[in-house]
Amino acid sequence: MKILIIGGNGTIGTKVSAYFKENHEVLIGGRTNGDVLVDIADSASIRSMFDKIGLLNAIICIAGEAKWAEFNSLSEDDYYIGLRSKLMGQVNLVRIGKNYLTKQGSITLSTGILADDPVIKTTSAAMVNGGIHSFVKAVDLEIENEIRVNVVSLGMVADAYEKYKSYFPGHNPVPMNKAINAYVRSVEGKDRGQIIRIYE
Fold it and tell me: Burial letters for 93-116: b for 16+ Cβ neighbours within 10 Å, e otherwise?
């Protein structure tokens, strides 16, 4: 398969990319580095990226940002960071990317545990994650060409645990092999319209 992994150089993306490179052609997309540059908050950038790459069998997105801050300090513009990047960025990857996929191709989006189990300072991020979960279930009812769309929702992964553990007291880190397998299940399996939750 020819697979595009947006965010393939990040903490999770590096491990996911390494797995798929063993048996597939993998292209890495990123905002500042990669085989192709893309800003997912900009639909014109997304379209330009796909025009350069051409036809694909699978798209994986492990990218997108949202503002983490106390609820009382979040401005309207702070919310729009997550809405434009992680939410609409991934929605637009589906809207535009479906036209660059082979029949029965797949699109895998990424969210996280905050949709189901938020912690403090995550009002915006939790809202965005929940929105993506609803989008994936709804778009499956209408998307054509037998394209499968799923979302991987991970807990705090082991490789990022030391950096972020103060935000997630008492949470068990997700082993990286489990995180990788969630993306394998979405791409190489038959799931469609699913929220693939791996929280411990």
Answer: bbebbbebbeeebbbbbbbbbbbb
**pLDDT of 164:** 87
What six digits make up the tokens of 199? 């929280």
Q: Full-prediction pTM beyond 0.85?
A: yes
Which pLDDT tens digit goes with each residue over 86-142?
Answer: 999 999 999 999 999 999 999 999 999 999 999 999 999 999 999 999 999 999 999
Per residue, what are the HEC states of 103-156?
Answer: EEEEEEEECCHHHCCCCCCCHHHHHHHHHHHHHHHHHCCCCCCCCEEEEEEECC
Cα–Cα distance, 41 to 153 (Å, whole number): 20
Which residue from 74, 33, 40 is spatially nearest to 60, judged by alpha carbons? 40
